[in-house]
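Data card: per-record layout.
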Amino acid sequence: MNKEERDKIDRMCQPRGLAIYGSMGKLNAFAQSILCAHKLYGYQGKIYPISHRGDEVLGLKIYRSLQEINEPVDLASISVPTSKVPEVLTECLEHGVTGVTVHTSGFAETGQEGVVIQKKINSIAQKGLKIIGPNCFGIYCPKGGLTFLPGSDYPTKPGPVGIVCQSGGMANDVILEGVASGIRFSKVFSFGNGCDLDAVRLIEYLAEDDDTKYIAAYLEGIGDGRRFLEVIRQVSPRKPVVIWKGGLTPFGGRATMSHTASLGGEADIWKGALSQAGAIEVHGLEELMDTLSALCFLRKPGKSLAFMGGGGAIGVGFADLAYRLGLEVPVFSEETQKKLKEILPTPGAGFSNPVDMATPALPLEQVIPMAKEIADRESINVLILNSLMHAIDAMPKSICRIMGIKAPDSQCYFDVLLDTYKRMKEETGKDIIAVLENHAQRRNHIHIETEKLLRETRNRFQENGIPVFPTVERALTGIRNALKAGNRDVAQNFQPGKKPPILLYLNKN
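The structure for this 509-residue chain is written out next.
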């Protein structure tokens, strides 16, 4: 991608002026909703609603055309009937608009008539107007104050992850899951049919974007498969590529054709091609977010793990899963085991790794010194501590309520634990992962206070650099994928001009 094209996309992501085409008088109309979303999100540039009816909305003048606007417009959001899109694009091109997002559907994904109209907008793009879409949600860029539906409450703080999504709904899901995972985004592109700026070109853009350190993509089909694989091949020797590819089954392929007019492809062919290009496949939204969490939070993920938890089955399950994922659970030295037993002289406890503390409600007076012993003495890469929220919070409160005594302060418990994790991470250089499980909630026996505590604790841990996973399995999967994702030292020392690691996320049914 040349510098001129990158500069244009930069201006689209941080526009001085935003024109919004479409109906402004009808409640829940797409254009009106986009306008409201940007007002609520806090876009600081000038907004120009455009509709042939004129009038005003939210205190803003509704212009009848771009010709009435004398100030710069870097981005236009278009939500007009399909047949009117070429006319609006021509107006934007003639007025000097840098780029547009076409939200309207009804193009190549609907059949031959739509194909003809999409070819018209392709020809307009070739004259210099940059186009994202059609059939898309557009651009979310916290730095530029841009959002898309229903993104009035998306995070305003930017982060290191860039996203390329063929599906607007999936883009929304990724952003919302990012909130829960402590992940923030530099830019998110929902590009739909990709008539101009498609997956390959947007990935190339993000690879040179100074604000982006990791790139994720959900894709249903690739127009130029050879070029797509070549882009991956260029990056993968330094930064492995992870892919979730959609439409690789007969049912999925049929769905992608009707969704974004994309051809999914044969599973075996894609698997072989991606493997030869150096890509790594993932299978789902959760796995994507777990991988991103490990990439963003862990400094030097390694395969040597230690685990602490309450309950023998939890430790056994951890060890079995680690083995299946190719991770290591080394036996602690005799000296370490002796020290741990001195701290917790409880019958039934286990100290060889994983550590079984013989109680689901892990007491801080034992957890903290035992964790320090392990981190100080053992040559592990990651220490994982598993906390069962029901046992730590809900169950003690129920018992104390019956006995008529004051319940222990669960919030204080986790505050102390967080402070310990932070100090251990700084002093030992080892990564610390918290697993906060709430099985009672997943079984619909909901303890509202415990769930609230879990979310608040998770957010505080992540704000302080400690990744939190809801299950041991998801934590281990994230670690395993992060190990495949390349040299973390280079990623941590990312400098402008250097290409970041790329994480491609596509859907595989």
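Known properties of this structure: The mean pLDDT is 86. Residues 410-428 form the longest helix (19 residues).

See the next section for split statistics.
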